Amino acid sequence: MDERGPEAPGGEALRSAAENLFQELQEHFQALTAALNLRMEEMGSRIEDLQKNVNDLMLQAGIENTVTEQTVRPSLGNQT
């Protein structure tokens, strides 16, 4: 015998509705996750393009070495 007691009227219909709702929520969550991942990949690509453009502009302006030295020197200073 089931320890939960007798099934309430409409209990199976309620359980089925809850399972359907859960399935729909899971599908929506998966679609949202896929959309967010795609947006993050697009944003990463845009950031890489922006970094390349900034580096190109810095090179044209003749200040690439200054920025490179600022980012490289502290780590070189720590090694010696």
From TrEMBL:
Transport keyword on record: no
GO molecular function: transcription corepressor activity
Domain of life (superkingdom): Eukaryota
Gene Ontology annotations of biological process type: cellular heat acclimation
InterPro entries hit by this protein: HS1-bd
Cellular component annotations (GO), alphabetically ordered: cytosol; nucleus
Record flagged with keyword Translocase: no
Lineage of origin: Eukaryota, Metazoa, Chordata, Craniata, Vertebrata
Coiled-coil regions listed: 33-60
Name this protein carries in UniProt: Heat shock factor-binding protein 1-like protein 1
Record gene name: HSBP1L1
Keyword annotations: Coiled coil
Family assignment from sequence similarity: Belongs to the HSBP1 family.
